[in-house]
Amino acid sequence: MYSPVNTIWVLVGTALVFFMQAGFSLCEAGFTRAKNTGNILMKNLMDFCIGTPAFWLVGFGIMFGSGTALFGTIDPFIMGDYSHILPEGVPLWAYAIFQTVFCATSATIVSGAMAERTKFSAYCIYSAAISLIIYPVSGHWIWGGGWLSQIGFHDFAGSTAVHMVGGICAMIGAAILGPRMGKYDKNGKPRAILGHNITFAALGVFILWFCWFGFNGASTVGMDSDALLETAGRVFFNTNLSAAVACCTTLIVTWIRYKKPDVSMTYNAALAGLVGVTAGCDAISPVGAAVIGLLCGVAIVFAVEFFDKIAKIDDPVGAISVHCVCGALGTLLTGLFATGVTTEKGLFYGGGFHLLGVQALGVLAVAAYVAVVITLVFLAIKHTVGLRASKEDELAGLDVSEHGLLTAYAGFAMLPDTTVADEDKPISVTGEVPLAEAVPVKKMPVFDDGTPKFTKVEIICKESRFEALKAAMMEIGITGMTVSHVLGCGIQKGKPEYYRGVQVEATLLPKVQVDIVVSKVPVRNVIETAKKVLYTGHIGDGKIFVYDVENVVKVRTGEEGFDALQDVE
Length: 569
Fold this sequence. Notes:
By secondary structure, this protein is an alpha+beta fold. It has 2 domains: 4-213 and 227-393, Ammonium transporter fold; 423-565, Alpha-Beta Plaits (2-Layer Sandwich). Helix content is 53%, strand content 7%. It has 16 helices and 6 strands. It has helices at residues 4-30, 37-64, 92-113, 120-143, 147-150, 159-177, 198-217, 226-258, 263-278, 286-310, 319-337, 354-382, 391-396, 398-403, 466-475, 523-534, and strands at 454-462, 482-488, 498-499, 502-503, 509-518, 543-549. Strands 2-5-1-6 form a 4-stranded antiparallel β-sheet, with helices on one face. A hairpin with a 2-residue loop joins strand 3 (498-499) and strand 4 (502-503). Helix 2 (37-64) packs across helix 3 (92-113) and helix 4 packs antiparallel against helix 12 (354-382). The longest helix has 33 residues, at 226-258. It is elongated. The N and C termini lie far apart (88 Å).
């Protein structure tokens, strides 16, 4: 006999958990750069769309089939009998879609940590692997009647089963992939690469917080008894309290450490508190939820710093710290704060070390299993189709290189990306570019570089070469320049791209225009240095224009001529 109340409760929870994809999309897009926005949104769409049929064909049977304590059954199309696992009053297909959206959530965690440098084809492959085999096997141990559930492991809504699994995959993937270009200097010191839209990130976090009430609340999989109603209320309250306390804690910690409260870290703390309380939100009191939130609020700050500065694992959105670290931490803390209302009592409530030991065993076992399998998957991808995008594609942005999307912000002026490849000196001309692709370089007449003469050198180049050009100009003695972000094309009219199958007619490519006025530094030195830095032999290397300048006036001092170009007080 099916229960309408239980069924509708599960389906409402399903809808909320599905909407978490929107939250993850906005959060990840906001914390990364504008040139990768379309790629991020595409990945968050496709991990759900790939994971849905994968879980239907293989994953659900592995996770919930009545096989062994280690593995369910191979049951394509979910044709078997699952009456042993179905919640009371909930039809099979309602429960199947509920579990499908949980699977998709685990898969989508990985995209944020590996953002901005992963090939889209590789992402599709490992996303499928997570939904087909990685998540279902460990899920069987925890929720499908496997060995962890048999010994009393408690993970109510998935701190370990969903979040830590995704976080481990993210950590291994980001480590194998390597950091983004320009993330670390030659001494290994990390550079800050800011996200382009904090509004997106904030909205994404609020959507996730809202949807977490379905993620945790609907995990009661029923609302037709007093006990379930009481549990659901406690779950909602604890979920919200942990997130709020985590935010307050991180705000204080970052205020002390950085002298100002960190916006992005505090928003990450909300997710950290939500992830941490997910394992035991049904089994702890509000006091336990507050303590979990407090500890996760502290842990998120030091975890982000650890992966960024010590482990040198580049995670643009903090997914590893949020989902892996706080997922494991929340699961362990359940062994301390469980009151005994839905599981055995934790250490602090007189239950001894048993539950804590079981929780620790479960965390270690799942982490080891996931780490081994996902490592094999990533290495297989790396040595076949390739895991990382090329340097050129990464510098240009994955939107245009992977999807032909010139910009996700048509009509809006965006700041140029100044990330540079790891180069200490300007590139010398090698002449190794094939003749068919090379553009002949013609010699120009020598300019008169006398002191009274002022010359403006206007250089138009690729955004990705600006930092190298700036460094080279500084090296030859240029102390002032004006930089503009411009759009334009040469006689080739840009590179043809397509949007929804239709060719974009007028393609204006983003470029950087650098204006330099020189007098003391020889103009020919400026030109030759710029050519060496910018030259690849391919169309689009840029142009250099040279103009005579009649006079120069420094507004602050009134100086004119040569003196106006000097920076001496």
